[in-house]
Amino acid sequence: MAENLKVLAALEDSDELLLLSLCKEEKGNFPGIEVEKLTNEQCRSFFRFDKDDIEILRRALRIPEKVVCSNRTTARGIDGLCMVLRRLAYPCRLEDLEYIFGRSKTELSLIINEVLDYIHDNHCHLLSDFNMSWLSQECLERFAGAVFDRDGPLDSCWGFIDGTVRPICRPQENQRLVFNGHKRSHALKFQSIVTPNGIISNLFGPIEGRRHDAGMLRESDILAQMRVHMTTPQGRIFCIYGAIFYFLCLMI
């Protein structure tokens, strides 16, 4: 088991899928990983987090020690979090995760969805409200300084805003509402603000795919929130940077 993990951690992402496919006929010989027995390098390869940080993340997200699904399938909280991290860290099928975690596709789906629902229900407000403890003036100063140090034209720009189109299947009813003419596909749209450390600090959506990004900006009420929370007592105003239509809207 330890040798299998060493090989997986050493391989490139493309080679890892090949190795997992070869393990499909030997499911009994690949019982699943134990997080406590993984090295720090293996945790980075599998989950993109250091080994010690995974437990810190579990406590920060307040994921319980034991996760219980609707059909009474259970898993340790740390294992459920690792399943979610692996699912999000690399585009893989549930079938591929069977040979990593030693669980069936059904169990993996239930546990992953249970943990994701828990995280969303308890922390989704952090993506929609600027009045957050972590987004303090000190954080804004640090983010703005990082942007300016990389030859940014402004010393007060702390994030980057843009809209994204996520394709969906053609609905049977009201398909015109979600048809995006630019991408020529049915879709839902989201608007996000990303800080220089790569974290999405604000997320709005979904809305109909036919809507323009400028309309999504107005509907999200980001401008009003920024006027309240992005002005310091000294009168300094922090801003965000985006595409030309976003920039024009933010200047108005």
From TrEMBL:
Source superkingdom: Eukaryota
CC cofactor: a divalent metal cation
Domain DDE Tnp4: 161-231
Keywords of this entry: Metal-binding
Protein name according to UniProt: DDE Tnp4 domain-containing protein
InterPro entries xref list: HARBI1_dom (IPR027806)
A single GO molecular function term of this UniProt record: metal ion binding
